[in-house]
Predict the 3D structure of the following.
Amino acid sequence: MSKRVGARTVALPSRPGILSWASIVGRKEYEGPYGERFDQILPDELNGESSFESAERKMLETAVTLCARKAGRETADVQMLLAGDLLNQIVSAGYAARNLQIPFYGLYGACSTMTESLSLGAMLADGGYADRLIAATCSHFCTAERQYRAPLELGNQRTPTAQWTVTGSGAVMVVSGPAAQRTRVRVTHTTCGRVIDLGIADANNMGAAMAPAACDTICAHLADTGRSFDDFDLVATGDLGRLGRDLLIELLTQHGIAVKEQKLFDCGCEIFSPRQDVHAGGSGCGCAASMLCGYLLPELYAGHIRRILFMATGALLSPTTTMQGESIPGVAHAVVLEHEEGER
Amino acid sequence: MSKRVGARTVALPSRPGILSWASIVGRKEYEGPYGERFDQILPDELNGESSFESAERKMLETAVTLCARKAGRETADVQMLLAGDLLNQIVSAGYAARNLQIPFYGLYGACSTMTESLSLGAMLADGGYADRLIAATCSHFCTAERQYRAPLELGNQRTPTAQWTVTGSGAVMVVSGPAAQRTRVRVTHTTCGRVIDLGIADANNMGAAMAPAACDTICAHLADTGRSFDDFDLVATGDLGRLGRDLLIELLTQHGIAVKEQKLFDCGCEIFSPRQDVHAGGSGCGCAASMLCGYLLPELYAGHIRRILFMATGALLSPTTTMQGESIPGVAHAVVLEHEEGER
């Protein structure tokens, strides 16, 4: 029985539940406007480890473990881990999966990973392929900067369009069947992103690289479901930043979408305050993930917001192909999250 | 309704069909024992492009397009592309998805990608989340060597345990509903791998890094389903190579599995002949993918083999973390493929 709605959207008849969630961030993120919302703060950038890569892996591992615990579970009870990160060979997710010993499907969607993992996880839970699974991701400023741009030790000046990679992680437990009644946050739809490329080639302008993909996925979702901005309390994007958010509004308007700007909540614009000197805003897989788990899910659970279109946005930046003259395409996957009164 | 069988296996009640498949390989693979089986041969290592990375991307794009065409479809009819490759940021898959404009979930499972994409694809098709999707992967000797080991120009001598990364790609179309009756190859089960690490740290001994994960997944699958080697015509592994295959037999025997060695078909041992000077055998995502599409699926379709446990195996090798003193874990995902008489 096809669950497809329109060209790219899937409706989930069982409305899988998000039973628990956990967020961890670094000190700079803690000092931002949402600092008190996150579950844990890293003691420092090394997180008790000897390398930034290992610090990032441990952060993800802690988020997954905490997420399981908040659902009253051990990690051994989790049937599947869907996760990825920004690092080459997704080493943070891979080594975390090794240490946690949860069966693992590794994903790469750059900064779109939180909704890639959540989309796939929600479909797998809805179909009965997993009773409980965790979708997760993470990023770390110090690992991302040296892999994608330049070693921190160089002290390069940042351009005005640059975004600050969030040091943070988020993990959500998706459950199906009767367990979904135990929560008040349900996943009702997924929309799969296409890779869209309008020719941006500047590694310090990720917002512009991602905005066209964000526009494409929002347009597809609204066309597939017949909905508009009026049907959502928020349309939350991952990490477009100030420049990318402005571009998205422009692109959506060009596509004939009646944008309600006050509903367009970009995690990258929100996570830091302008006084924190992050230029265009936050970015990284951990940006959408920590804001989802620190702010959006608790608000949905409480019923302060009732329905959101949540869409992490990724720039498929490769230093190798950029040097070969390629541009940087983007991708964005969307899920609809709803408040629903449950048993508790 | 849970479709889970035992701890890690999923049974697919609708038995999604594999409607079409396509394989492309390089000249060296063409000169191996299965050369005549593949659909297309690259003209040379650059495949008409200006970089090896671009050559690899174009190969994957061609495999996906050819796979759609063999099913009587345009790529625009394909609802989802599940793909990944060995390169940082999975650039081959990402740029192929951009050019093909198929909605895309990017995966990273190193050389396990063919069964990761096929597992996720089969579950999504079974559940009605996609009517037709393509699962695909690729690898290229020239891109993998320079990213993971050393530039080819160095002319490094290869160790006896080294494997030769296959230049090749494979793509399969997974369909659900009535369309599945149009083929004779069905996917009946998936088993999700765990990340297993027995401490191998040598980038030239991938077989040893992957064998423990292969053993873990086979043991889980047999325990979950109550089956043994007797229930399969072949237990096909991705790219363990000669050393890894021997280790797998030893590990399975230690775990009390009655191994039928003649049924243990390793794509890495098969794709090249010993005269081709590849040392321990073939490797790379393209190894399992091209052998699946060039040899195993046609044999299943013809009924020459009736049921196989197919499991691509990945070594989660990262040059960065290896230099930081980390070891190389492995992961292996399995699917059961069966011949079934269809309408045609």
